[in-house]
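Work Package 4 report. The design task specified in the project plan requires that, given a folded chain encoded as structure tokens, an amino acid be chosen for each position. We show below one input record used in the internal validation round.
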């Protein structure tokens, strides 16, 4: 394969990637309302089903291909499916296939940000005091291990030595490096300011939250996670479930658990607040709390406790506290009204998610402030 063929392949691949990216943006709202992508998520990539993609190409003798009104058959004869009882013959033409492409989560986050016009997140200033070491190969030395030998610089050094000593022969340009010609890549260590972040997901798993509501939470959480992870180098996720009591669980348990008890939201808020105080000091962490519920709390007294925790413990310490209320036929939906009537802080964001179609707008609402 020559250099021109290689270049043409690279151009075709680039064209294909642009087409795929355009298709994803075009159908992003549809992807955001289904959970099939979440199930195909890998460590760094996600498989996305795309409709058939036809690259532009020339077609010849279009008029000779035939069509309706041409070929055998009498006037008025049906051109639809065969008559009842007839069995169709096996065909030779391929059917329509769905193409699955692997897209990196980083690129998916870029597309999400472009489509929803999400601003880049600006971490809190005091949280940039964490430092990490980063090694960068940015210099050349005359000593080093063979694994770091810089072949191009070694050859150039040997060539310069041959020319300066007068032994270089253009007719027979044999260059043999000696020990003094050897050059090796070297590095310097640089301290970089880093920002750490934690996402704490809280979900009501009481009897009024069914499988459909959990699927909405699962799908929306995937997109929230994808965007926030593209904004931070170091990010953790924690999961809390609650009915009348709260407990911390792993990701799989978070989405699959269903209880039949009542709902005391303050139990989850107390646990979340304790987690922040003990493990995620606000001076060193960017903290995001997302709570999903159908808005049905046990009592108005407990709601007062929740408002107090949000106001005094969450809002002064977190980047965002987001409450998403998922529509349920069993939930009263009162909790959303109570929060909105009592609290008006900039880093408190609420969203009403009646169906899967509302996920798109909900994510834009939650992440649209760039906090």
């Amino acid at each position: 394969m020559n250099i021109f063929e290689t270049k043409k392949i690279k151009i075709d691949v680039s064209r294909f990637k642009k087409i795929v990216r355009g298709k994803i943006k075009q159908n992003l709202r549809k992807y955001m309302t289904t959970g099939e992508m979440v199930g195909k998520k890998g460590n760094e990539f996600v498989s996305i089903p795309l409709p058939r993609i036809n690259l532009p190409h020339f077609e010849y003798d279009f008029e000779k291909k035939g069509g309706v009104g041409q070929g055998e058959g009498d006037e008025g004869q049906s051109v639809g499916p065969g008559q009842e009882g007839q069995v169709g013959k096996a065909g030779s033409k391929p059917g329509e296939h769905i193409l699955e492409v692997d897209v990196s989560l980083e690129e998916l986050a870029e597309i999400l940000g472009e489509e929803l016009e999400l601003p880049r997140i600006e971490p809190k200033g005091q949280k940039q005091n964490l430092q990490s070491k980063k090694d960068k190969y940015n210099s050349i030395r005359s000593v080093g291990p063979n694994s770091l030998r810089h072949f191009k610089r070694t050859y150039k050094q040997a060539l310069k030595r041959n020319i300066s000593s007068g032994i270089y022969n253009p007719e027979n340009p044999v260059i043999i490096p000696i020990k003094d010609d050897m050059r090796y890549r070297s590095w310097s260590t640089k301290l970089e300011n880093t920002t750490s972040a934690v996402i704490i997901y809280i979900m009501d798993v009481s009897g009024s939250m069914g499988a459909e509501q959990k699927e909405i939470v699962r799908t929306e959480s995937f997109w929230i996670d994808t965007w926030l992870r593209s904004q931070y180098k170091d990010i953790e996720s924690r999961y809390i479930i609650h009915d009348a009591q709260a407990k911390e669980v792993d990701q799989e348990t978070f989405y699959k658990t269903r209880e039949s008890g009542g709902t005391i939201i303050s139990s989850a808020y107390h646990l979340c607040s304790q987690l922040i105080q003990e493990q995620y000091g606000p001076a060193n962490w960017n903290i995001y709390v997302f709570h999903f519920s159908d808005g049905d709390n046990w009592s108005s007294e407990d709601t007062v406790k929740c408002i107090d925790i949000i106001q005094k413990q969450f809002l002064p310490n977190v980047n965002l506290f987001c409450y998403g209320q998922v529509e349920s036929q069993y939930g009263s939906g009162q909790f959303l009204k109570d929060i909105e009537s009592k609290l008006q802080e900039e880093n408190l964001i609420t969203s009403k998610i009646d169906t899967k179609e509302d996920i798109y707008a909900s994510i834009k609402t939650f992440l649209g402030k760039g906090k």
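Confidence is low (pLDDT under 50) at residues 92-97, 125-130. Validation will be extended to a larger panel in the next phase.
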